[in-house]
Amino acid sequence: MVNRGFWVTVVMALALILGMAACSVDEPPGAESGEMNSENSDGESEGDTDGSSAGDGPFTIGISLPAADHGWMGALIANAEEEAKKHDNVEYILHTANDPNKQTSDIEDLMTKGVDAIVMLPIETAALTPVADTVAEQGIPLVVVDREVNTESYRTYVGGDNYGIGFGNGKYLVEGLTEKNGEPRGRVVEITGVPSSVTDLRSQGFRDYLENYPDIEIVASQPGDFTREAALKATENILQANPEIDAIYSQDDDMTIGIVQAIRDAQRQDEMFIVSSGE
């Protein structure tokens, strides 16, 4: 799998290029330079930059990401800020949010501030599709990262092969069940992420691989929302309702931490194994 930390460099570069193509050098929009500030996870960070030049400017890039309640998301935010600092004529406005309504409001705020391009990682695919269309209608280049939106209004999408990830996880799970039970059979649980293209594609790939193994049954599937806390609760509920489980498929390694805790709390470590997607 491509290292997602690499995506930030690609996304920032794309946003810079798209922003330069969309604005006039004679009348560049954007906020005045200022000291870098930061607020909490539902707040906003603004900063001017220093380092290598990305061309004429100044340019302002709006960045909208989910809050850093996940290890990879925290790294993504940090890397986005670091990449922006490499360009002395680029300013950025970073918004993070905990729910789709807040993220939609954040993106509307970026449009109001006249940014030259927007980089967005949607919290949820369907919920963020309308505002993506609005960005396009305003003529602002949009770069979508990781989770897609249900529209082609964005200029560029940067993401991994999530169907392939799920398909590969299905393969590993079948191999594990064959080793455990002597043949590809067993009772399987799936812990999914938030409603998004990432979740849908990983689940579809996983299930497509299992279609060839009729003796493998998915007995439960619940969302873990890509957080260890939600995954812990989902797994606890599933363990209580299912006295026999052979394996659990986790769509995310942060959720896997919560899954492991639930299994240990139930003292069922010897009964099942976990196959996990991760970075």
Summarize the model shown.
The chain is an alpha/beta fold and 279 residues long. Helices cover 43% and strands 19% of the residues. It has helices spanning 4-22, 71-84, 100-112, 125-137, 162-181, 197-210, 228-241, 253-265, and strands spanning 44-47, 59-66, 90-97, 117-120, 142-145, 156-158, 186-192, 216-223, 247-250, 273-276.
Jot down its keywords.
single chain, 279 residues, alpha/beta, Rossmann fold, six-stranded mixed β-sheet, four-stranded parallel β-sheet, 43% helix, elongated, Periplasmic binding protein domain-containing protein, carbohydrate binding, Peripla_BP_I
Strand order of the largest sheet: 1-3-2-4-5-6
Radius of gyration: 21 Å
Q: What is the fourth-level CATH superfamily of the largest domain?
A: Response regulator
Q: Mind telling me the CATH class of the largest domain?
A: Alpha Beta
Helix content: 40-55%
Percent strand: 15-25%
- Poorly predicted spans: 1-10, 16-54
Q: How does the major sheet shape up?
A: 6 strands, mixed
Overall pLDDT, averaged? 81
Apparent shape = elongated
- Oligomeric state of shown chains: single chain
Number of DSSP helical runs:
8
**What structural class do the secondary elements suggest?**
alpha/beta
CATH architecture of the largest domain: 3-Layer(aba) Sandwich
The number of distinct structural domains comes to 2
End-to-end separation: 8 Å
GO molecular function, one term: carbohydrate binding
Keywords: Signal
InterPro entries: Peripla_BP_I, SBP_2_dom
Pfam family, one: Peripla_BP_4
